[in-house]
Design goal:
homodimer, alpha+beta, OB fold (Dihydrolipoamide Acetyltransferase, E2P), BirA Bifunctional Protein, domain 2, Gyrase A, domain 2, 5-stranded mixed barrel
């Protein structure tokens, strides 16, 4: 061995350690030559300590130290001394190590970018050189936060008597919802495993097997066209409990969140979390994941305008739709016609056909649609939304979901554009959204699909509606939302095989299809399944929020690009013909 | 909700709880009708509690209780009472619950087998009905032991400042060693990801990224024809450390094992573990994973017989081979000619051409080969192996590895057949096998292959031998063995890009192949890689040993058969043509 092992790490030494002889190991972060005096900032996972080689004491050593390059791997031996010019920004900044010997363990080539936080980097470069990117303090901190997250999770669920159980990665392909990643079987040519989109069915089977409280931190996979905030492989904290109601699952979830926020950020979450029905969340905030850090509530004005002469609105009202208003406080002056046109384009992305608006300035209404309303109607609207001088009112008019979705999107956009989000960015507002619809109608497939998943239990008084009024049926489903992001979602599951069959039927699945895809779940439910339910948290997104980054790839050691490339290792890649042959597969000719 | 939630669990109530009113939830394990008095053993994850319905007190209730069937899911409310006939085999056996009300939450169909330990079950049936198999006390206990294993692991490595980091599941295919499972990419048709055989390269890259101490409990995948003690997906505890030598890694491993055995079995492991070189393990026990619970050491007698007239032996000696002896103590009488023929067949499976033997009975030698040796040679052999009256000597003669491998296999077989293994089955003998050869010669491929993997560092004085005498080069590699099973293995890795290149060259990899497969590792080593090394433990096998089962599938919640079938969910299965189409794949026609 041509190097000396550390006796201390680089984050450890303080003024109390003065005169201590130490050996450190690490990376040369910065090397400075101040008139022959060589300073090296030595970095390891725990911190940075300054080394100094003094030519008066040891000229040979100082000469050698000159040749240390940034990112060289170094061992250093010397004595702790009080610094003349302390660096108050680091915990070790009061001391330095006067070198008596050192060596370069491994030379580093010149890195393609500087290892520090305040450097402008193209993300592709960062991903290609991930081993260097991860050395940057910011990235180290995020992955250490993620580690803390794991440890709190392990402890919390163990303390609450949960059993950690691994579910299989090579499982059955049941494409219902997202697209599966497939894994061809070599032994059974022409057959495939699928990677789990979630261990949903397996955790339910663990409940029928009597484990009562299950937890797993588990990778899941979805082969979807990726949005920038999604990864094809992602991690969830998967939880399931038996003999419980929604309140029991929520109590476990709340205790968990409280611990995470306290231990990682020293933030106290008030429990119980605010509860809000899906309907209320939509009506007040235009979203099933409302950002409650600010108000800007929507108001339903359908009853007020239903008799107005504005046909666009009154038609919507007549057809059972909703007309609602968002009051963009104080925005009348700032939103020129051009900016309102931009808002209109934005609203159209969310399905709006247009965007009606009113400015309330000095007691008067400025609006292309003002003429369609009586003064009384206008007065009631203004009163309804607490309009004050300078406010801008934006109208949505459509079916329930469509109307509120558009206004919800505008609410967030206005909050962002006017700086409101910036003002509240260090606060956390949690809510638990409940009473989701059991189904939603899929226009493309022209059938009802499960809003959560097909195993979600209907509410007790919605049981009959599965068959008679599916659109009205509510589910025992819940999401946990913080600052407008969904971080967890779950439900009480169906534990009765007959109800599960009804559910599959309502979803338009034929009996043989059900038998083939979900036969083993129905079989498991047959032999004494307990009432059960659970929740799954999105780990990557939670770490994102806790670490204060807005890039999900920053929370993952080796992420992929949005198209699924690993720029570091070059996967996916071509494989040898022999490998495909063994799997009984061939590539389709390119069209 | 048509049931009452538990106030206590079924493993909790004691005589101190007498007169307490409780509600329990669980499964009806046994239902007995003793002249109108109905007893139900109610089971949950925590235990079993006896319920009783008394017709004199509540005839309607007793009548209903009669109709409870085994495995029905039940809620029960009543008062704790001292039992007249206590059951001392269970912790709750002193009390029972006198029912005041109960209900069936979910009816169970008649299970295909009884939920208890002492039932003869075909393993295929168990795997198909895994949700019922897992309800059996033995299986519950194994998975709870596995849970305990996880928790100890999380705690131990966190306490030792390791960082838990997730490595990718969709990675680059680099078939070197075992066969990869492939995952076709939809976005990049014709390209594939591979599932990890181990996160080896990624954990090394995490060391170059400066995380210093990494741990992960991680699924790994090998698409091999399965032996009965292997699963295609298996779990390892993956560990890597920077700025360390073999001794540092071993100290972490030893502390870990000590904790596991203490907390799970209350067994004290003496540290440091016994160390033994690969060569010593082979020469004394004929295995690189020696079972040290019993002696039966092999003896090298090459020098003694090299001038004998038995040409089979002397030729081996002349060609640099080894002749060695296993003394099967006291086996002379028991091993008839027929049994020795069976031993010979067994030895041939391990590569022996035949099996020479000598019986030592009443001072005389009985052996087909006795005539080839002088009395003096025989006396020295007898002395060398401490032969006593009634001993059976078995000879191996071949090249080093081949000779000892055969004798090692015979040693285990004799120990098993004569009941020695049975006598020692409750003891644990650990050893750390070190100083492995760096390469082994692969006769089929006619080249050297890495004995551990291509990233293993040669020992300092073997560095030059990589090119000049590969067969003699030793590695900084180590295995941890308990009772003849390898439970962990690791090495100090190569941290110098040039040494790594030499290693690839010695393995016969062309430069472009190296660049394509391992270019990103070489790139990472270039920018300041620290000295590093690690170890990986086989979780499934360790749980097997700690839980005292000899079936690896018992340690896994949802295992596959040896051919990779999941009998419960029916995977692998056919997929829709559309799914293959999207992946740009087609099935080869069956031949």
């Amino acid at each position: 061995m041509n190097w000396k092992k550390r006796t201390r790490n680089c984050g450890q030494l303080r003024i109390d350690n003065e005169k201590e002889n130490v050996v450190l190991n690490g990376w040369a972060s910065v090397v400075r030559d101040l008139g022959g005096l060589i300073f090296i900032d030595l970095r390891d996972r725990w911190g940075i300590t300054q080394l100094v080689a003094e030519p008066e004491i040891n000229p040979e050593l100082a000469e050698r130290a000159k040749h240390v390059k940034t990112e060289d791997v170094v061992w250093a031996s010397g004595q702790v001394r009080k610094r003349e010019n302390p660096n108050m920004r680091i915990p070790t900044g009061l001391i330095e190590i006067v070198l008596d010997d050192f060596g370069i363990i491994n030379k580093a080539a010149l890195p393609p970018f500087e290892i520090c936080d305040d450097v402008e980097l193209n993300e592709d470069t960062r991903l290609k050189y991930r081993f260097l990117d991860l050395r940057r303090p910011k990235m180290q901190k995020i992955l250490l936060t993620r580690n803390k997250f794991y440890q709190i999770t392990h402890r919390y669920f163990a303390e609450n008597d949960f059993v950690e159980i691994e579910t299989p990665f090579l499982m059955k392909s049941t494409p219902e919802g997202a697209r599966d990643f497939l894994v061809p079987s070599r032994t059974y040519k022409g057959k495939f495993y699928a990677l789990p989109q979630s261990p949903q069915i397996y955790k339910q089977i663990l409940m029928t097997a009597g484990f009562e409280r299950y937890v797993q931190i588990v990778k899941c996979f979805r082969d979807e066209d990726l949005r920038s905030d999604r990864q094809a492989e992602f991690t969830q904290i998967d939880v399931e409990m038996s003999f419980v109601t929604q309140e029991d699952v929520m109590a476990i979830a709340e205790g968990y969140l409280k611990k995470l926020w306290k231990e990682i950020l020293d933030v106290d979450i008030q429990l119980p979390l605010r509860k809000m029905s899906y309907r209320e969340a939509m009506e007040r905030y235009g979203s099933d994941k409302p950002d409650l850090r600010f108000d800007m509530e929507l108001k339903n004005v359908t009853d007020i305008i239903k008799n107005s002469s504005f046909k666009v609105f009154s038609d919507v009202a007549d057809n059972g739709g909703v007309v609602a208003v968002l009051n963009a406080k104080g925005c009348a002056a700032d939103y020129s016609r051009k900016k309102i046109d931009e808002l209109t384009e934005y609203a159209k992305k969310y399905g709006a056909k247009g965007l009606a608006w009113m400015k309330y300035i000095d007691g008067a209404i400025n609006s292309p649609i003002a003429k369609f309303f009586s003064q009384e109607e206008i007065n009631i609207i203004l009163q309804q939304v607490n309009a004050e001088n300078g406010d801008l009112l934006l109208f949505g008019a459509d079916k329930f979901n469509e109307c509120y979705t558009v206004l919800g999107a505008l609410r967030l956009k206005i909050a962002k554009d006017t700086g409101i989000i910036d003002q509240v960015k260090d606060s956390f507002e949690f809510t638990c959204v409940t009473d989701f619809p059991l189904f939603e109608f899929d226009e493309q497939e022209n059938r009802f699909v499960a809003m959560h998943h097909p195993f979600t239990s209907p509410q007790d008084d919605s049981l009959e509606k599965i068959e008679t009024q599916p659109a009205e049926a509510l589910a025992k489903a819940y999401d946990i939302v913080v600052n407008g992001a969904e971080i967890g979602g779950g439900s009480i599951r169906i534990h009765d095989a007959e109800v599960q069959r009804k559910m599959f039927k309502a979803l338009g699945l034929a009996e043989d299809e059900v038998a083939m895809k979900f036969g083993f779940l129905l079989e498991a439910l047959k032999y004494g399944a307990p009432p059960h339910g659970g929740i799954a948290f999105g780990l990557d997104r939670m770490v994102m929020i806790l670490a204060g980054t807005d890039n999900i790839r920053d929370t993952i050691a080796f992420p992929k690009t949005t198209t699924g490339l690993s720029l570091m290792d070059g996967s996916p890649s071509e494989v040898e013909a022999k490998q495909l042959d063994e799997l009984g597969l061939s590539l389709l000719k390119k069209q």
